[in-house]
Amino acid sequence: TKTGAKLLDFGLAKARALGVDRDPSASMMPTGAGSLTAQGTILGTGAKTATANGTGRQFGTLAGTKSIFATLHVTAVSGTLPTLDVLIQSDDNAGFASPTTRFTFTQLTAVGSQYVNPIAGPLSDDYWRAQWTIGGTAPSFTIVVVAGFANNATA
Q1: Which of 19, 25, 114, 153 counts the highest number of beta carbons within 10 A?
Q2: pLDDT of residue 58
Q3: Model's pTM, two decimal places?
Q4: Are residues 94 and 129 in contact, defined by beta-carbon separation less than 8 angstroms?
């Protein structure tokens, strides 16, 4: 974009809901009708029933003129006493040998959304991932976790 924003989508995106046509030649395009992505974004299924690490993706370092922001959206929850804890981590290594937690969302137990305050660059880590911990009896969450780089606001 004109502002230089980049987005990572660690959850779910659907073209039908947005009324957007997808480009089947775009890189990292998932298979399946209705999926939407663009070069540099990350998609998952959205339905989470177990604790896991999302796939780490090389997104690039964060320049001093940029900030990273993150949002979490839970669109469906089931189970007995379900809990969801989500982190966004970065590392300078694809294997996440020494990940740094950049964002920690407040634990969710129901449908809802959260936005965490942006972190200003520079950051030298260039790999990013979401990590979620799920608790309860037969828990299931449908989530969207989005992180993005944007230019810092000027005074």
Answers
A1: 114
A2: 82
A3: 0.71
A4: no
